[in-house]
Protein 1
Amino acid sequence: MTATLKPQQYLADLLSLAAARAGVPTTRTPTAMTAAAAPPAAMPAPPTAAVRWLAELMLLYGLPFEYLVPVAGMLPPESIRFFFLDQNWTNRLIDGAASVGVASTVDELSTYAALEPLVRQAALAAPSVRARLLKRDTAPAAAPAGPITGFLLRSAVVSGWPGLEVAATDAAGNSLVPPLRFERLAPDILLCLLNGLPVEVVVKQPTETMHFGVVEASGGTYQVTLRHVGGAEAGTQIGTQQCPTVQRGGNAPGSVINVQQTAAALLAALVADKALPDGTAAISSAQLAIQMVQSAGLQPFQPQQSPPAAPSAPAAKSSG
């Protein structure tokens, strides 16, 4: 059989115990501290600035990087690590931050009584932290953030393309973008926090990197990756097929492409791959542009959501 312990009774017991240990005689328990006393007044709402600060703390703002990656070998160069934030851990983080002003047992009890609603307010404020820091307008969140997941990416790609973008979707196909946090912690380390559990995360170069270009081949030559020019597959690659370009100066360094002869070579290659009807006399400027365009590069990841069943044979080591 268990009994419910009221905060007032608990506080009275603590005060009596402290007095007994100090050798102070006690004739009665203070009336104000008994269960029969009038209920305490409702606690005032915490300041908005305090809730915002705790919401940022929930998203790991201000937390030393050593708390996230205590050993450098856990995040080696050219690696990505997916994770989720344990709510018990973040709750204790908020608990510790809220206990800074605790100076007495009464303060401690008051903090514990207010901790659960304080955590909920911080979770409700978390989805709008990034927009607020970017000085963008956003509507208040209807539900607390969570589960909070994310990844750490350590790569030369982070420093080479500061404008990296991310796209993430959950099992229902819903987008998890914009992220709760998307920030470079170091020149080559990127931290991303998502509001939900992703089944696919795509890291891609900024869209403004789209340009005309060619693929460098061996011997100082350059090739163009062939793409479909019509129908539902327009713009998609034709397998791994490539067509050599024609340069005005041959393979001499610094030579430029002969557009007319390269277009003729592309026409022949597209006809051979059945991407254009036989007898086509020339490709249009739009069709040439489809062949020459180099879109932004991207890399998809499918993070593992749960521990796999015990394998009957040694499993391959995961790269993520």
Note: Confidence is low (pLDDT under 50) at residues 1-5, 30-35, 307-320.
Protein 2
Amino acid sequence: MKARIQWTGEALFLAESGSGHAVVMDGPPEHGGRNLGPRPMEMLLMGLGGCSSFDVVSILKKSRQPVEGCEAFLEAERAAEDPKVFTKIHLHFVIKGSGLKEAQVKRAVELSAEKYCSASIMLGRAGVEITHDYEIVDGESAI
């Protein structure tokens, strides 16, 4: 896996993935940024959410669960002093589907957290306290 990060001035960076996708990262105005993109640590948090959500949906599909939607809401706490690493992250999944089995949803979230989500496992090994929970929304209700 490769990535390229190019400084484009002030606190603005263009990040390009090895697969050819690009995203702008910027800093806050108080650090010379213009707020034109997410902060690098926000990207890390979003990456964790994407990695874990991908796993949960994949596991549910393989379990033949009628998953129709998945949202992950993440909240993170950071250290007060430099380096301002993540100290705690909580992932709350909202899984939508008609007739989802709670045991299968619980299993999918646990398997992602404990076995499959590389981002979650890497951050956990680095000392970040990561917690998860979920709620199931019947497919006929709005997510």
Note: The chain has two domains: 1-38, 40-138.
